[in-house]
């Protein structure tokens, strides 16, 4: 005995909630990497008159190399999209597909509520579920935008094949659609998505897979309340939920 009291250290348990599964996080990573490569290799081909583009595509060999990288990234993105859609169909067939990402009328109500809050008409923010209207807009815009770019991109890549059963004007139309949508998607991702994820608040849940209790309470209050009700209901008698 030394006469000194032993110090005990209390470890504070921080409650977190699972936001994304491992598979979803890998999907996002593959989507991010392939989309970034497509943008970096596609924009120079569209804007060939700019000096930075001319330096990059200064020779036929460089142009061909950039195109090959672009095509490889397109294949990776297409495979990721096939997996994503296939998984959704599989879960739908087994009646296990969550409907959290589907647009509902409440999203319109929440958007109106948020506009009133930003205009100082209302003092409180709307309460959101697992996904808010901004996140749904991002998901569906990217989904249909990349679908359009994928279809038009393969038509441009294999014009001889597709013109066997499509009119000749399909190739110029595909080039216009592919080029225009690529610019819109780039602006949308860099401004809308980047702002909401990295500027408005730093949200790393797509990488860590989890959100803290404070984040859930503030940004997904309805989902937080729902999960707490489930936890309370499933808690054993005398057990703290």
Give the secondary structure arrangement, pairings included.
Layout: E1 16-18, H1 22-46, H2 51-56, H3 60-93, H4 105-118, H5 133-157, H6 159-162, H7 170-199, H8 205-208, E2 210-212, H9 213-219, H10 221-234
Antiparallel strand pairs: 1-2
Helix pairs in contact: 1-3, 1-7, 3-5, 5-7, 9-10
Q: Round the mean pLDDT to the nearest integer and report it.
A: 88
What does the main sheet amount to? 2 strands, antiparallel
Give the class from helix and strand content and strand pairing.
mainly alpha
Helix content: 55-70%
CATH topology: Fumarate Reductase Cytochrome B subunit
The helix/strand series, from N terminus to C terminus, equals EHHHHHHHHEHH
CATH class: Mainly Alpha
Within CATH, the superfamily carries the name Transmembrane di-heme cytochromes, Chain C
Number of helices: 10
What is the assembly state of the chains in this entry? single chain
Shape-level CATH architecture = Up-down Bundle
Overall number of domains:
1
- What is the CA-CA span between the terminal residues? 40 Å
Total strands: the figure is 2
Widest beta sheet: strand line-up: 1-2
Proportion of residues in β-strands: under 5%
Rg measurement, Å: 24 Å
